[in-house]
Amino acid sequence: MVTIKVGTEKRHEISPYLYMQFMEPLGVCDAAVDTAWDLWENEWYPGVIEKVRELGPTMVRFGGCFASYYHWREAVGPRKERIPMINHCWGGIYHNQIGTHEVIDFCRKVDAEPLIVVNMESEGLLFWQEPKNDICRKGTAEEAADWVSYCNDPDDPLRRAHGQETPYGVKYWQIGNETSYTVFGQRGFTVQQCHDVTCRFAAQMKARDPGIRLIGWGDTDVDKKENWCRPMSQIDEIELLAFHHHFDSGLPDSPLYSTKYRDDYEANWPHLMHAHQSLDAHIRAMRADAGNKRLAITEGHYMLPGRNRNEVLSSWGAGVSYARCLNTIMRHSDVVEIATMADFFGNVWQVNAMMIPGRYFTDGICYLQPVGAVMSLFRHHQGRFALDASVSGAVDAVASMTDDTVYIHAANTEMRKAQQLKLELGGKTIKEAKMFYIAEDPAAEITPQNMDVFAVKTLQIEGDTVTLPAAAVAAIEITLEG
User: Fold this and answer.
1) SS3 assignment, position 17
2) Could you give the angle at the alpha carbon of 327 between the alpha carbons of 326 and 330, nearest 5°?
């Protein structure tokens, strides 16, 4: 018997943006954004919108490495006047048929808050500022500030000329992307340069709209072992510090790559169950140096040898592993305001939350990867306030509460053994309880031919005990008496 003890005293309010999805045009690496867009009808495919509503992202981030050479004006206004661009990081041509208006329209259709990444002088990387066969791609503070006005100023003349009289009201903006990282073997800004440029961008952007919330880059320079979080936390004009967490198992001799994992899935399990520990360590390191700033995990997912084409991430064992990562984020929800554990959608990368196999299928056929299935499950059964939770056995669990309803997110860390759960709610009486769960063989993989393999099941709980199947992930919803 595994006992889950939940205190009913509310600790802190949980940000709604811990289920963010990250939208970036990935060029020839993954069709991503373009594969969701109907070029014949100039709108998002209805089947994609329907599946995204099921996924339920609370925020959608537009940017990434792509933002480091993006000029937003090339992608607004009449379609015939939009300017195609070379996708310098990901390859191919991006035709800019999806720009500010389309991204905001997408967010409104799926009820998500938009987050926009601005081009911060190409992160100081000269090969993106003045690339071969292209115009200058360096973004300026003035350009970023003009984008804020375009989105948020009720009287912005350019947006109104484009037929959009009502402002978009974009509240969250990220200045730069992965500024401390080495890109194609080259380095951009130093931490001092990043600090100074961020200050300049922040001042000009907030002059246009003082009510926006700004995110600065704060992740550690891994190559030089240099702390960026502490100096960046001193910038008064930014509210959040961003970092990215791309991870593997954290153990040596990992089988989680290529097709080697299929030879002996039992050998994968310890690696999958260990992966969340690096996320916990990363968050702890960031919060130790962030001062009074909130944290934003604006990218996060497995990244195994072979980049993002890793079939193991289509298997249910990865879903259980991601559930532990999401629970780790929830344990730090007193300081983490924005988080994600997946790229968004596309038709190649297995780190996507959602797969769109190709245009032939897009009128209705798309499916959630294991990480997307778990994010959807937890997102739709999530409380407003954090609660204390402790577990006596091999189950990873966190708890939250809204009004008189308690929510427990649980993952069975045993691959082959079911767990009998006893629910203790601090002396409170359970009026009604249900368990919404996904339980499947950890080696089971989702494909376009078996898109319902990770369907959510529902179980009415009698009393205060319930059986959690082996390798299951569950959201338990408990209504308390009085």
Assistant:
1) strand
2) 90
Total-model pTM: 0.96
Q: Which secondary-structure segment (H or E) carries 298?
A: strand 294-302
Helix (H) or strand (E) segment spanning residue 229 = helix 229-232
Cβ neighbors of 81 (< 8 A, separation 6 or more) are none
Per DSSP, what are the bridge partners of residue 240? 215, 294
DSSP H stretches of helix in 87-172: 100-110, 126-129, 141-152, 157-161
Choose among 319, 336, 276, 343: nearest CA to 35: 343
| Rounded-to-integer distance, Cα 390 and Cα 225, Å | 35
Give residue 412's identity as a one-letter amino acid code: N
pLDDT string in tens for the chain (482-residue length) = 999 999 999 999 999 999 999 999 999 999 889 889 998 999 999 999 999 999 999 999 999 999 999 999 999 999 999 999 999 999 999 999 999 999 999 999 999 999 999 999 999 999 999 998 889 999 999 999 999 999 999 999 999 999 999 999 999 999 999 999 988 889 899 999 999 999 999 999 999 999 999 999 999 887 778 899 999 999 999 999 999 999 999 999 888 987 888 899 999 999 999 999 999 999 999 999 999 999 999 999 999 877 667 899 999 999 999 999 999 999 999 999 999 999 999 999 999 999 998 655 545 589 999 999 999 999 999 999 999 999 998 999 999 999 999 999 999 999 999 999 999 999 899 999 999 999 999 999 999 889 999 999 999 999 999 999 999 999 999 999 97
Here the tokens at position 329 are 């984020």
Q: What domains can you pick out in the chain, each with its CATH number?
A: 2-9+386-480 (2.60.40.1180), 20-384 (3.20.20.80)
| Cα–Cα–Cα angle for 14, 314, 475, rounded to 5 degrees | 35
